[in-house]
Amino acid sequence: MNTTDIQTYAIYLSFFGIFLLFIIGAVTAFKNYRSGSTLSMLIFSILSTIGICGFLFSVYQLQNLAFTTYSSSSTSGAMPSPTAMSEYQKLSKLYVEFMQYSSITLIACLFLFAISLAVFCCRIGNLRKRNQQLEDLNEMLQLRLTN
Amino acid sequence: MAPNFIIISLIYLLVPAIFLFATVLAFRAQRNWATITMLASICIIFLIIAYTMFSLYTMFSSRGPGFTEPSALDSIIETLFHISPITFIIGLVGFMCTSKKIYRQQDELGYEKIQLTKKLNALNQSQP
C-alpha cells in the first residue's frame, strides 16, 4: 500500500466518520423528540452510512483485484493470461456496478436526509414560536391571578 | 456531453442546496454557535461544489490542455472541502443538542399554563 492509497483510504474513512457523526446527530434528535422527521433522519443517516461502506468496499476490492491480477504475472515478467484478464474484467465490471449503486444510494439518502432535516428545522422554528406564545399567555394568567 | 454534465452538476448541487435551505431554517429557529457553524460550512461546501463543476465544465468545453498543474487556490479549496463537512456535522450535532432546550421549555411552559389555569378556575369558583 503506497502513499496515494493511504491518502485515498484516509479521505474515504474521514467521510465514513462524518456519516457516523450524522447517525449520532440523528440519534440525539430522535431521543429528544420522537417524530416522523427525526425517525426518517435516523433511517437515512444509517442508509447513507451503508452506502459509503459499500462504496469503500468496492474501491478496496477493485484495488485488491488489480493488485492480485498484475502482481501474480509481474513475478514471471509476463502479461496476465487471457483467462485471468477476462476474470479480472468480469469482476471489475461487477465492482464498478456495485460502486455506482452505492453512490446512487448515498446521494439519494443524503437528499432525503436533507429534506427530513429541513422538516425538523421547521418544527423547531414552530416550537419556538409556540413557546413565545405560551410565555405571553402565562404572563397574562399570572397578571389575572394577582389582580 | 454538455447537457448530461449540466444535469449531473445540478443533481450534485441539489443536495447541498437543500442542506443550505435546512440550515437557514435552523438559523431562523435559533441563533447560536451551532447554526452559525452549520451555515458557514454549508455555504463553503456549496461554493466549492459550484466552483468545481464550473471549472470542470470549462475544462471539458474549451478542449484546451486536459490537465493543468493544481494552483494554490485548488489546494486551499481541497483543504476546505475536507474541513467543511466536519465543521458542518459538528454544528449539526450541536444544533440537535441545543434544540433539546426548546422541547424542555415547551413542557415546562405547558405545565405552568395548566397550573395557572387550575388556580384561576379555583379562584373564580370560590368567589360568589
Notes on the structure:
The complex is a heterodimer of chains A (147) and B (128). The mean pLDDT of chain A is 83. In chain A, helix 2 runs antiparallel to helix 3. By secondary structure, chain A is mainly α. Chain A is 91% helix and 0% strand. Chain A is rod-shaped. Chain A has one domain. Chain A has 3 helices and no strands. Chain B is an all-alpha fold and 128 residues long. Chain B has one domain. In chain B, helix 1 packs antiparallel against helix 2 and helix 2 packs antiparallel against helix 3. Chain B is elongated. The relative contact order of chain B is 0.12. Chains A and B meet through helix 1 and helix 3 of A and helix 1, helix 3 and helix 4 of B.
Largest sheet of chain B: none
- The backbone outline of chain B, from C-alpha atoms, is elongated
Secondary-structure class of chain A:
mainly alpha
Radius of gyration of chain B: 25 Å
Compute the gyration radius of chain A: what is it?
26 Å
Briefly note the structural class of the backbone of chain B: mainly alpha
Helix content of chain B: over 70%
Q: Which stretches of chain B are poorly predicted, pLDDT < 50 over at least 5 residues? A: none
SSE series of chain B: HHHH
Most extensive interface: A-B, 37 and 39 residues
Total of DSSP H or I helical runs spanning 4+ residues of chain B: 4
The first-to-last residue Cα distance of chain A is 80 Å
What percent strand of chain A? under 5%
Please count the beta strands of chain B (DSSP E, at least 2 residues each): 0
Number of strands of chain A: 0
Query: In total, how many domains does the architecture of chain B comprise?
Result: 1
Determine the mean pLDDT of chain B.
Answer: 81
